[in-house]
Design goal:
It contains four helices and no strands. The protein has about 120 residues and is mostly helical.
Length: about 120
């Protein structure tokens, strides 16, 4: 399977805008502001997206998902200078924060539609 560069660039831009702030906030909460820099969160998203696309093109199914999860955790571990468990907790907290923000935005969006 080939990697579509147009889609990859869009995924990098959208991922950077949406995921980097959430990853940065969860990193700051877990490892502190000295280790969790915003530029590190941006690099995590960019490198994770590119590496995930490459391994997603090579492997499929559950194997690809497991490899991508391990690679994302390794990237978080490296950039936030932490252990594997804290990298997992940072990722898990980022998912929870993202879900809460998405839910709040959805409720606000639906509330706006109800009044129009």
């Amino acid at each position: 399977m080939a990697i579509n560069l147009d889609i990859l660039v869009i995924r990098i831009i959208v991922g950077t805008i949406l995921i980097s702030p959430v990853l940065w906030l969860s990193g700051r909460a877990i490892v502190g502001k000295e280790k969790a820099k915003f530029t590190d969160a941006i690099w995590i998203v960019i490198i994770g997206t590119v590496v995930g696309a490459i391994f997603g093109a090579i492997f499929t199914g559950a194997i690809a998902a497991i490899i991508q999860l391990i690679l994302w955790l390794a990237i978080v571990k490296y950039f936030f200078d932490t252990g594997w468990l804290k990298a997992f907790v940072i990722s898990l907290v980022a998912v929870v924060i993202f879900a809460v923000v998405a839910l709040i935005l959805a409720v606000i969006g639906f509330g706006i539609w109800a009044f129009t």
